[in-house]
Amino acid sequence: MEARAIRTVEDWARAYVESDSLSHKLTPPPLPAIYEDAPRALRLDCPGRPAELHVEMHAEKTRGLGSARNRARAMHTFFHHELQAAELMLWALLAFPETPRPFREGLVRIALDEVRHMNLYARHVEHLGFHLGDFPVRDWFWTRVPSCVDAASFVAVMGLGLESANLDHAPLFAARFRAAGDEEGARVQELVGLEEIAHVRFGVRWFSVLSGGEPGALDFDHWRLALPPPLSPRMMRGQPIERAARLRAGLPEEFLERLASWELQETAPSAAPSS
Q1: What span, in angstroms and rounded, lies between the C-alpha atoms of 196 and 68?
Q2: Which of 19-33, 53-67, 257-271 has the lowest mean pLDDT?
Q3: From the CB of residue 44, how many other CB atoms can be counted at a distance below 10 Å?
Q4: Quick count: other Cβ atoms within 10 Å of Cβ 203?
Q5: Who is most buried in 11, 153, 175, 203, counting CB within 10 A?
Q6: How far apart are CA 55 and CA 138, in angstroms?
Q7: Are 58 and 113 in contact (CB under 8 A)?
Q8: At what angle do helices 183-211 and 68-95 cross, to 10 degrees?
Q9: SS3 55
Q10: Is 137 helix (H, G, I), strand (E, B) or coil?
Q11: CB of 198 within 8 A of CB of 221?
């Protein structure tokens, strides 16, 4: 990939998304202090992928976590989730330059958090005796998120969808790692889950702002209709829902009730997102 001069935050973001260097993904260069005065919208089609990472359409699912290999496979999957999240936060920075500057600054902060989480997972993969690239990865997030038509839809998917679901998944995997005798792996999951609360809170705030909703309010139907098909509320949660963490992130109780019962509603005609 041809190197580009990095002068602005937008240059930095594009270089990160497009980089095919694993070291760049894990340790990006220092962030510039300058944002472009009048950036043009840029919707990147796909990320750069380091040669070490083997992308497959259907990566094998991890079953039991009793073996170090299966735990390393799970951590490798989580590493790649965080990589995609970091890239897509920066994708949104470039795709939606008309959004308020504090929103775009928040996207960058979250991307840097995701990079830090990537490194936590990568170190534990190594600790378990494996390396990045020992397991295939799946660019599932990249096949869905770039279909978001606007910034509100992006926040609906990432902040209120995928990152919210991680509040449910993290404690479940922490318990499974601990049951397997992997206390360090459990602590990594707990730390990431705790730090995701602020990311979801960011989503709650900005979805209301960007979608023209009532400030401080979050309507379930308003959110679900912002999800681009084929995404649905059922795909945006774990089982069970981690209510305490979601409430701390600002998700209303009524919203959580609707989310928890969505399987019963999904076949109803009124539940189908409008085209």
Answers
A1: 26
A2: 257-271
A3: 18
A4: 28
A5: 203
A6: 5
A7: no
A8: 20
A9: strand
A10: strand
A11: no
Alpha-carbon gap, residue 132 to 123, rounded angstroms = 9
Residue pair 203/158 in contact by the 8 Å Cβ criterion:
yes
Q: Say if CB 52 and CB 22 are below 8 A apart.
A: yes
Look up tokens 């999904």; give the residue.
Answer: 266
Are 174 and 190 in contact, with CB atoms under 8 Å apart?
Answer: yes
CB neighbour class for 35 (10 Å; exposed up to 12, middle 13-18, buried from 19): middle
Alpha helices in 19-162 (DSSP H): 22-26, 68-95, 101-127, 140-144, 151-157
The length of the chain is 275
CB 233 within 8 A of CB 241: no
pLDDT of residue 275: 24
**Contact call for residues 16 and 88 (beta carbons, < 8 A):** no
Question: Please, which contacts does 200-203 make with residues 24 or more away whose CB atoms are closer than 8 Å?
Answer: 200/159, 200/160, 200/163, 200/164, 200/167, 200/246, 200/249, 200/250, 200/251, 201/248, 201/249, 201/250, 202/106, 202/110, 202/159, 203/155, 203/156, 203/158, 203/159, 203/160, 203/163, 203/164
Hey, what are 18's tokens? 């497009």
Q: Cα 137 to chain center, whole Å?
A: 15
Q: Radius of gyration over alpha carbons of the chain, in Å?
A: 18
Output the pLDDT for position 19: 98
